[in-house]
User: Fold this.
Amino acid sequence: MSANSESHTRAYSLAQEHYAAMGVDTEAAMAKLATIPISLHCWQGDDVGGFENTGEGLSGGIAVTGNYPGRARTPDELRADLDMALSLIPGKHRLNLHAFYGEFGGKKVGRDEITPEHFSNWIAWAKANGMGMDFNPTCFAHPKAADGFTLSHADQGIRDFWVEHCVRSREISAVMGRELGSPCVMNVWVPDGYKDTPVDRVSPRQRLAESLDRVFAKAQDPAHMLDAVECKLFGIGSESYVVGSHEFYMGYAVKNQKLLCLDAGHFHPTETIADKLGSALMFVPEILLHVSRGVRWDSDHVVTLDDALQSISSALVRDDLLSRTHIGLDFFDASINRIAAWTIGTRNTLKSLLIALLEPAALKEAEASGDLTTRLALMEELKGMPWGAVWDQYCEKQGVPVGTAWLAETKRYEIAVLNKRA
Ligand code: RNT
Ligand code: ZN
Assistant:
């Protein structure tokens, strides 16, 4: 045992005692954490580029900034990078893939022509890794989305095109779920909206609802795939009006019992999603999270261990919502090492869950008995508890680097692999 590992073990035993004195079982918390999968978004690895190779840039009001070297240029490179990131993250996780990451063998395959075969390598990779997959139709970065409308477009032909893309995406999702033995959550997000004040706010929403009804017309086995819909407040170029607003999708999801996707960056800057979870779950069956971090706008910064993140994880644990919540990530930063971005964001999400799992029952008891003084005092004291030692122990147990050791491995990979990409 190395000196390092020995000091971790000592730190852990002290932490374990400390928590036990509060009635918290650290072993149980780690065991629970190991059962929570995080869906890693493929698009952090290549700046939301996809593999259609049409030369079409990113659109839809989302933007990636930075030019850090080493972006994955092929499916094999992206999978290698994901393998690397996954080797640094404790636990068993999932892959979240966008439709334009299909493998089209150099052929031009329309979004309305995609089939499960285009994703067979991804499915084989996930199977080999014992991972589940989630999926998304890609309704942006395409000539037929160039004027900012897709499923709600005034033109019937364009609507039909995107409906077909989404219908096919559901079939592909069902195959992924069946092949991997775990339901694939398919999230529909469309960028549709106006830069400036609209006159008619209703017709596009009626068209979006109609298109969604067509997309979801065929029943799919929930053991194989689940439908989610993602709302948004604004995007670049859709500052004044987004067709798929929160009220729109909340209503649609409640009416049709779909999953509601809540992206942490899709609300007013001071509005957090933690308080929405329990309320929405009173009326929708399940939730999909896009854990993200907006800085001044929906900027999709790498998730840090901040209050917004902690409040989400604490709500999931305190209100016992984990079994009905699918946790996915949604950020993309091209200004830092992309594997580090995945690793930092995912490890932080897991850390916040661990901190939540290490809360003593005394907190709920204080509230139940009306002792709000103790509730606040305890919450603040808990911030100083040695959860870091439990985290290190968890990483060691799961066979991934402890502390900052993952960074050295990332740097090694950068020199050996990323820097060789032109
Ligand atoms: C955009 C949405 C959406 C996308 C991904 C790429 O604002 O958050 O989820 O980020 O589908
Ligand atoms: Zn999102």
Residues 366 and 375 are 5 Å apart (CA to CA). The chain is about 40% helix and 10% strand.
